[in-house]
Design a protein that fits this description.
It is built from four helices and five strands. It has two domains: 42 residues, no CATH class; 55 residues, 2-Layer Sandwich (VC0802-like), CATH 3.30.2130.10. The protein is an alpha+beta fold. The strands form two sheets. Strands 3-5-4 form a three-stranded antiparallel beta sheet, with no helix packed on it. A two-stranded antiparallel sheet has the order 1-2.
């Protein structure tokens, strides 16, 4: 989104989203604008627009990688070798896991590659009665 480079603009956006019950799962803010990750992208965009900012919605895939040298390179090389462009890419690594967000030019080609990075689901907690 395009937001004015003013003191407090990120605070205003974050507060407006919070008041609407929208969870910000990730963000990047720099001189080129602000990117927000939320499962409620369309609603978030509407709220941001109401603050006078220009924005759009880009759907991204979240991929969890090991937080180690070469993990991002391997993923990007595999996608490039499959002819997949990455118009949007950002992420961060903490605690042994990197969360990478990508929009892809060809979902059909990227799908199997992205799926190969899927983490096994944790078993649901169980309880037993006496």
């Amino acid at each position: 989104m395009e937001a004015p480079d003013r003191t407090g603009i990120l605070a205003r956006i974050a507060r407006a989203l919070a008041k609407s019950g929208i969870n910000v799962e990730g963000f990047v803010a720099d001189a080129s604008g602000i990117q927000i990750v939320s499962h409620q992208g369309d609603l978030a965009a509407s709220i941001v627009r109401s603050l006078g900012c220009r924005c759009g919605v880009t759907y991204v895939q979240e991929i969890r990688l090991p937080d180690q040298p070469g993990a991002l390179a391997e993923l990007c090389e595999r996608l490039a070798n499959a002819g997949v462009n990455l118009p949007t890419a950002f992420g961060a690594g903490t605690g042994g896991t990197a969360r990478v967000y990508l929009s892809v030019s060809d979902v059909r080609r990227a799908g199997p590659i992205i799926a190969s990075y899927a983490q096994p689901a944790s078993p649901a907690p169980s309880s037993s009665g006496a």
